[in-house]
Amino acid sequence: MTSDGGIKIPSRLPLLLSHEGVLLPGSTVRFSVDSPRNMQLVSQRLLRGTSLKSTIIGRRTPPPSCLCSPTFSGSLSPFFHLCVCRIGTAGIAVQVVGSNWPKPHYSLLITGLCRFRVSSLLKERPFVLAEVEQLDKLDQYTTPATEGAAAEDEELGELSKKFYQAAVQLLGMLDMSVPVVAKFRRLLDSLPRETLPDVVASMIRTSNKEKLQVLDAVSLEERFKKALPMLTKQIEGLKLLQKTRKMNPDNEKRVLSVRKGGVFPGRQFNLDGEDEEEDGDDAVALEKKVHGANMPDAALRVCLKELKRLKKMPQSMPEYALTRNYLDLMVELPWSKSTKDCLDIRAARTLLDNDHYAMDKLKRRVLEYLAVRQLKTSLKGPILCFVGPPGVGKTSVGRSIARTLGREFHRIALGGVCDQSDIRGHRRTYVGSMPGRIINGLKTVGVNNPVFLLDEVDKLGKSLQGDPAAALLEVLDPEQNHSFTDHYLNVAFDLSQVLFIATANTTATIPPALLDRMEVLQVPGYTQEERVEIAHRHLIPNQLEQHGLTPQQLHIPQETTQDIISRYTREAGVRSLERKIGAICRAVAVKVAEGHRCEGIKSLPLMQMIVTAIKLCSYCATISG
Ligand SMILES: Nc1ncnc2c1ncn2[C@@H]1O[C@H](COP(=O)(O)OP(=O)(O)OP(=O)(O)O)[C@@H](O)[C@H]1O
Q1: Ligand 1 pocket test: which of 364, 385, 395, 539 has the largest number of ligand atoms within 8 Å of its C-beta?
Q2: How confident is the model at residue 250 (pLDDT cuts 50, 70, 90)?
Q3: ipTM score for this prediction
Q4: pTM reported for the whole predicted model
């Protein structure tokens, strides 16, 4: 990186393009990265690279006109033409923090080094790579202030002197303790004069547009000319504020804020209290939500403690986002929100009969279970586990139970889960930590008494990351689940109101301890006659509706259904049969959309299509595919 021309940045730089914030040389800014291209840049360049060179990236805030362009996050050529001719800042990534919650993203802390101009674009994917020309000298920070000044011509010397004096005047007007002012003064004196416009513009409160103007000013003189009015505006603003304070001493307590964001080579500070106020409002709103969430005392205590920490944290700290996410989840959880059960056994029987044909034994046991629940509301009852071949309606009975009770339904697919953190969540000390599926499910349904269907408990795996079945033991044990503690929450959540139902294809692979906590209800496969009935009562009407057809447009006689079952399906359940009926519906939908009428007579209404055994042959290609 060093040559006779001083320290050099790499000539090929990956570009981080987002509209969030402006990075000026000499300042440190935190950026949140979540667009696909920028994510690729972080994962392929910053996280894989091992050299110092690989931590240097280019940063450019696209002009506002690009932001509304639909190409901004997609294919980007037109907006590129706009950006190519402009100036950016090369920066060094000093910190990369990744998180998966609420969605995958990285947070980058970047320190601006120098300006560059994009000479040409080398590639756009997987991230943007450009050939760049370095515009500022990098060794200016290492050159003592006086040496830099010696080279200045008269006019520039005058300008920089004026700028320095304005910066000192502004510093004197700030409501800060004497040691802090002294520290900033020392910083101001130690900086080479040519870096002052960038450093001061990044510290004072200005719009991104104004900061971009400073960035785009390649000549030092122009940069001073652009930054000086911003500084003067701040001074005028403060003078006005002091005047009003003198007239109204009550406002005396309005203290100007000092923001301790990491700024290179000094620290970033804000020159008015507006932002602080916004943060304050935000914290007050969050505190209100915490008090209004009706959470138990233990959880409330934890939340208030976290809130207190949050208020003291600068927003730029990575932990701020983590704590904020945690508190957001805590207030969103349904600690004491529940739906009222509206159980009527007769209505439940009708509903179960309407939704499912046959399965008499299973329906009888479900009704017994519901009846006992009606008589004894606080039933610490058995967990029902429906065991049977695929497609026999286990999941769908679970859904019907939720409907009969008037409860929310949530399905948790456990097939292939082999990490116990999937159930219990990760501790908050982990990067990308998040709550487990149980807590996530509760957040999704928004009530604390839903019906949770634990689908495919027989397909739980085991790995080095722990045994998820062991974590489920606590969830399903009525003696323990009133104080279920997710690792992410780290406070107990009462799961005793949740109605758990499990499904499995076989009991052979369910861990014995888990099986012991459940009452197994076998759901056998169907006979040919039962399948024909299920098809005509449920599957055909459902498929017609899903494909926008009416019984007047398509009729499948019983013999045809028997034919489909015997010739095209080999299963214990009815899922494959349902798919074949769906295939017939699709083929008929095409004909209906084409306007299938009696040959030539357009005035006649659309004809009903009857799928006879002979016609079935012509659909063979569709349904056996
Ligand atoms: N007795 C029945 N009456 C009405 N529809 C049924 C019946 N049995 C199954 N079905 C229908 O079959 C389809 C498949 O059922 P479901 O998804 O509940 O099967 P499953 O037993 O949970 O299968 P898997 O073990 O693969 O999860 C659903 O559309 C369901 O409505």
Answers
A1: 395
A2: low
A3: 0.95
A4: 0.58
